[in-house]
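With this grant's support, the team has encoded backbone shapes as discrete tokens. A representative record is reproduced below.
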Amino acid sequence: MSAVKLLSIVGARPQFVKAAVIAQVIKRLRLPAGRRPRHRLVHTGQHFDQAMSAVFFRDLPLPKPAYRLGVGGLPPTVQLGRMIERLNGVLERERPDAVIVYGDTTSTLAGAVASSVRHVPVAHVEAGLRSFNRRMPEETNRVLTDHASRWLFCPSANAAKQLAKEGLTRGVHVVGDVMVDALRQSLPRVKAARRRVLSRWGLTRGEYYLATVHRAENTQEAGPILDLFKTFNRLALPVVLPLHPRTRRLLERAGWQAHSSGSLRIVPPVPYHEMLVLEQQACAILTDSGGVQKEAYFWGVPCLTLRQETEWVETVDSGWNQLVGLKPSLVRSAVASLTGRSQKPRRALYGRGHAGEAVVRQLMKDLGVSRAFAL
């Protein structure tokens, strides 16, 4: 039997982190010569600049992409079509046994569609999440990808229940969240970088807020973002905001040039481990990012989500996350209600850091190499 061929399709910052976890598990497999899976990476180019892409391949245990599709900086529908077209050529050349897609971006959906058309089975890592807001591009991407996938790897039992409501019960596996794996593996580097990162930005542990704003539904108009920035500007503690390229472009088109003012400190996007330090050491996090909500929970840092809904409902149900939206008065009220970092225990909502192993183990079993499988 020839070696199993796996293809991971990535394109955005969170996907690089997730794919790195899977790549490391595959690399650790103890299999006889000729049986080790051949795992190749396809980078669509959805995120393409140094801060959002290249730095991740430098700092994470990611294999060098075998293919770079170069599909970045285009309108979403054009981008999706170009990705599918170019992925078709890659799939024709590689003929993989399975394609792995991650999360909920345009790259995720493109990988699922292109693979399904060619009858290549798809594994969706982070399946079953729902915000029930179809105005979010990510929601459409999630739903369509789940219904096109053979393997549905869920980060929580709630995600599996949602799939069952949609009639998806075959191939569903609750494995936990690979982002928890990544966080646990990053602990030594985060600890080593704390002093350097805080010194770089002139910060003191527990005496600043960390903020991010980049979701498509939050960046349709500049006005609400500028009003939010004015709110940040007036808070009692510094607000560190790594400015996403999408948000920067929106504001620049409206005539606003990125600058710090009052309590608001605008900084460029930061590398993965530096971002983890900023999260861990903050007194609270204000974000519209799904991944950052989970990371806040992992670190035990209170989170205010700048949206009306979240796909990570467990963080809200547990009391660690509060939905506040973008309205300045609600943001000010929520910040004022914060009482500091709690020491209350947190359940392992998304597993204990072995999700990547569970994903690879299941794939190897179903692709016929389980007898020789070991970690």
Observations:
- The chain has 14 helices and 13 strands.
- The chain has two domains: 5-177+351-372, 181-337.
- The radius of gyration is 20 Å.
